[in-house]
């Protein structure tokens, strides 16, 4: 209730209300100042409201007192029950845990005012889950209440927790939640075989490495605590078998390490041990965490294919062996109780297998065709043996036949040699080292011998020196050789091998006589080579010739352009050129023709008159009319040229301005005089080229060329 001291109760004062909830939650009587709540209040929604009130004159609307502020506080009542905001809960605890082992802590929240009464005071209790678990009434911590709870007995527990306010007193509000507790596994159980003896039956034809049976030990634990390792205890027959663990089923897989044979041994007995991989030291007192069982394996007799006496057969035969010769045999037996006969045949795969045949009953292998080691040195094929009683049971073996060499080919020079000898060679000089090769398969230590043929041993030119190491040297036997006398020598060399029977061949070496310098370096070996640089390859010589041809083409093109330029300068216009082409059909007499025109005026510019007008620049004077009388076809050339000269002298604007007087001027002559052979007094035949020998070694080849031409002059041959 609001009241102003200025309010006399006569209705002149009006009360107003503003602030939180004014008009929506709270209202005021304007005359009496009574404040009323117009709807229900919830402390958990808004615990207090701040309002402002004022007394106003009804007539003037002016405040009679300053505005005053006051707070309305909502008083709490116990209208909210405790709530588990994180529920339901999931927890786990290891099995076999001691009493009081921590499991989980739960917490309930009460929205009431904790500062007013016991409305927010919560107490915890277990409604369901006893006697296995307990809870602290104040903290809500859940712990185990029984010892040695076994997961293998019961794994899942559901506990119902209650939280009650008002300190748990009568009339308090309560809330509940569920806690699902799982006992986690520990390795507290050893593996156990369900039986002490396992019987297995295995065919003797089982392949090595194949699984022949499974055994299993049972472990009630879970996960890694149930992982089992199996081992074969050393003893009777254990070395023929192996055991591994299937990681998914934890079974022991027995595998075969070695082949079985019913005829050798029909049964095997051994022990298998199963143990845990991950042990828990807390439970060692329970006993050993392993178990043992006996495995008995009975070998079953099976109809097996024949067995060869060897895993592979190797035979040898000479390449000249006649067809039908027996070179070896293979043997296979049926090892089963009822022994059966065996048949043999070749596993045909290609034409190579047709070189041999096999006796179906005895297994002897013979040649079917003539063999050639140089064509095929080794044959590799398969022999199949089958049982007569059951042809489907077969076995296979590889046979390798090596063809032995027979000395049937003579040795020959290994590579073609290009042998040369200098003209200035000395006796005993080695000019070539040769080697030999034999198509036959040479045995270790075979030697080749070299010698001259009988018809060449008497000639005094060359000899063969056998070095006794399968090589030989070609040596000179005379002092100097002449290309002019003989350019090529043919030397027959006889090569023999050391096998039986002895084979030999005659090989002809071609020896070319070459020109060499004083150090023995070859300069040329034929007439064509004289013009080629010594030591250059064919590609380099071709490149040099191409460069020379290109340079000659450039020079010819340059000279042609220079000549064309001279003609264009002398012919001042296209009309002049056309006139010359049309009317100038007389060659003239050349340089010897001095009657046609005065050539001196063209050669010497000094004869030009000093008072003539300059024609090196274009004058500004007007052009004179040019009269070009058409020259007759038979007009004398001298009159024609004089007429044209007079025209150009009179016309100062006629181009080119000064070319006529100076263009063909050769000068006063050359110090070297003319290079032309027109005035030569002697012919090539009269020349004496002996002076070239005096110019040094660079002109020696040139001197020899002209010297040889004189020496080979057919007119001088007698």
TrEMBL record:
**What gene makes this protein?**
Cdh12
Q: Where is the Cadherin domain?
A: 4-84, 85-193, 194-308, 309-413, 413-531
Please indicate if the UniProt record lists Cell division as a keyword.
no
Q: How does it sit in the membrane?
A: Single-pass type I membrane protein
Which UniProt keywords are given for this protein, alphabetically ordered? Calcium, Cell adhesion, Cell membrane, Cleavage on pair of basic residues, Glycoprotein, Membrane, Metal-binding, Phosphoprotein, Repeat, Signal, Transmembrane, Transmembrane helix
Give the source lineage, highest ranks first. Answer: Eukaryota, Metazoa, Chordata, Craniata, Vertebrata
Identification of the protein by name: Cadherin-12
Source domain of life: Eukaryota
What residue stretch is flagged as signal peptide? none
Q: Which organism is it from?
A: Gymnorhina tibicen
Task: Write one Gene Ontology MF term.
Answer: cadherin binding
The processes (GO biological process) annotated in the record are: adherens junction organization; calcium-dependent cell-cell adhesion via plasma membrane cell adhesion molecules; cell migration; cell morphogenesis; cell-cell adhesion mediated by cadherin; cell-cell junction assembly; homophilic cell adhesion via plasma membrane adhesion molecules
Query: What are the TM regions of this chain, as residue ranges?
Result: 530-561
Q: Does the keyword Transport apply?
A: no
SMART domains according to UniProt: CA
Q: What does this protein do?
A: Cadherins are calcium-dependent cell adhesion proteins. They preferentially interact with themselves in a homophilic manner in connecting cells; cadherins may thus contribute to the sorting of heterogeneous cell types.
Q: Where in the cell is it found?
A: Cell membrane
Q: Name one GO cellular component term.
A: catenin complex
């Amino acid at each position: 209730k609001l009241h102003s001291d200025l309010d006399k109760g006569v209705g002149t004062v009006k009360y107003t209300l503003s602030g939180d909830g004014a008009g929506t939650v709270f209202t005021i009587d304007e005359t009496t100042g009574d404040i009323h709540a117009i709807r229900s209040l919830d402390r958990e929604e808004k615990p207090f409201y701040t309002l402002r009130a004022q007394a106003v004159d009804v007539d003037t609307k002016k405040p009679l007192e300053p505005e005053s502020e006051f707070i309305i506080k909502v008083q709490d009542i116990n209208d909210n029950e405790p709530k588990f905001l994180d529920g339901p809960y999931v927890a786990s605890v290891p099995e076999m845990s001691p009493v009081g082992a921590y499991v989980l802590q739960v917490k309930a929240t009460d929205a009431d005012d904790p500062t007013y009464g016991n409305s927010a005071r919560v107490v915890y209790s277990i409604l369901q889950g006893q006697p296995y678990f307990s809870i602290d009434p104040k903290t809500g911590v859940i712990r185990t209440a029984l010892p040695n709870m076994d997961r293998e007995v019961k794994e899942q527990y559901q506990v119902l927790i209650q939280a009650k306010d008002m300190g748990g007193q009568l009339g308090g509000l309560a809330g509940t939640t569920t806690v699902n507790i799982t006992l986690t596994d520990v390795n507290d159980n050893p593996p156990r075989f369900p039986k002490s003896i396992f019987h297995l039956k295995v065919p003797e034809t089982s392949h090595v490495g194949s699984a022949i049976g499974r055994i299993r030990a049972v472990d009630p634990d879970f996960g890694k605590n149930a992982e089992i390792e199996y081992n074969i205890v050393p003893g009777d027959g254990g070395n023929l078998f192996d055991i591994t663990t299937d990681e998914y089923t934890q079974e022991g897989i027995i595998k075969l390490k070695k082949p079985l044979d019913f005829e050798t041994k029909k049964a095997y007995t051994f022990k298998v041990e199963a143990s845990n991989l991950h042990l828990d030291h807390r439970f060692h007192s329970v006993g050993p965490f392993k178990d043992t069982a006996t495995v008995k394996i009975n070998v079953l007799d099976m109809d097996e294919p024949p067995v060869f006496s060897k895993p592979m057969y190797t035979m040898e035969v000479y390449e000249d062996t006649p067809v039908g010769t027996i070179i070896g045999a293979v043997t296979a037996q049926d090892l089963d109780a009822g022994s059966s006969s065996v048949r043999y045949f070749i596993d045909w795969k290609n034409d190579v297998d047709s070189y041999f045949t096999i006796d179906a009953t005895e297994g002897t292998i013979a040649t079917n065709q003539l063999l050639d080691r140089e064509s095929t040195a080794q044959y590799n094929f398969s022999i199949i043996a089958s049982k007569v009683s059951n042809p489907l049971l077969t076995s296979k073996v590889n046979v390798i036949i090596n063809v032995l060499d027979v000395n049937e080919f003579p040795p020959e020079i290994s590579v073609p040699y290009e042998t040369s000898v200098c003209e200035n060679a000395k006796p005993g000089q080695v000019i070539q080292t040769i080697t030999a090769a034999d198509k036959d398969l040479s045995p270790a230590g075979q030697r080749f011998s070299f010698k001259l043929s009988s018809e060449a041993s008497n000639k005094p030119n060359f000899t063969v020196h056998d070095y006794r190491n399968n090589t030989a040297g070609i040596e000179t036997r005379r002092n100097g050789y002449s290309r002019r006398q003989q350019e090529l020598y043919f030397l027959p060399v006889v090569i023999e091998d050391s096998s039986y029977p002895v084979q030999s061949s005659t090989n002809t070496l071609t020896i070319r006589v070459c020109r060499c310098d004083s150090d023995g370096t070859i300069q040329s070996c034929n007439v064509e080579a004289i013009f080629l640089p010594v030591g250059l390859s064919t590609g380099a010589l071709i490149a040099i010739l191409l460069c020379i041809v290109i340079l000659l083409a450039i020079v010819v093109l340059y000279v042609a352009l220079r000549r064309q330029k001279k003609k264009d300068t002398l012919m001042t216009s296209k009309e002049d050129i056309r006139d010359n082409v049309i009317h100038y059909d007389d060659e003239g007499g050349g340089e010897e023709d001095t009657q046609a025109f005065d050539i001196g005026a063209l050669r010497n510019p000094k004869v030009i008159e000093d008072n003539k007008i300059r024609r090196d620049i274009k004058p500004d004077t007007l052009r004179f009319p040019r009269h070009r009388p058409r020259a007759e076809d038979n007009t004398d050339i001298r009159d024609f040229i004089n007429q044209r000269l007079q025209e150009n002298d009179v016309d100062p604007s006629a181009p080119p301005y000064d070319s006529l007087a100076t263009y063909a001027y050769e000068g006063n002559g050359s110090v070297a005089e003319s290079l032309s052979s027109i005035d030569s007094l002697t012919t090539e035949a009269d020349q004496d080229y002996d002076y070239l020998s005096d110019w040094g070694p660079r002109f020696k080849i040139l001197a020899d060329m002209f010297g040889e031409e004189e020496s080979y002059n057919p007119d001088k041959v007698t």
